[in-house]
What does this fold into?
Amino acid sequence: MPRPAWRASAACTRARTRALALPAPEQRRARATLGLTHTTADKLSVTVEAHHQHLSPAAGAPPQAALAYHAQALALQDSASRWAAMLWITRPDLFAPRLDLSLMARHNASDRSQTAWAELRWRLDGRDLALQLLHNRGRSGSEYGSALLATAVSLVYTHYF
It folds into this structure.
């Protein structure tokens, strides 16, 4: 049986971006992420992360500007939050071999919106079957309150060639 383990991570980036339609002074982007992961002897892995991004809509920005920014960030699969916290939990072989559980929750501290995602995946030879749940909440104009889906349930079949 594997031994429990801790892992810490940190990342900082600074870049210039033109992907988001922002005025020239705001085209510089700085980000920082701090994370801590603990894995138990029975393979339960819990990760907590804190995220900061300098480039995001300022508090009190016009709703149209915030919505446009959130839409662009979503299209680029990028984070739109200035401050955020994330919890990620995985447990392979949950009740049976090759039955994996993944849970993710993210809180945008700037606009107080949240998203949560859960997946139960059965890994078979050459194919996977997964049940996924997604829930977004927040006020109108917030990162997750602006999402197209408030709640979704998906059954996903993947066949590997």
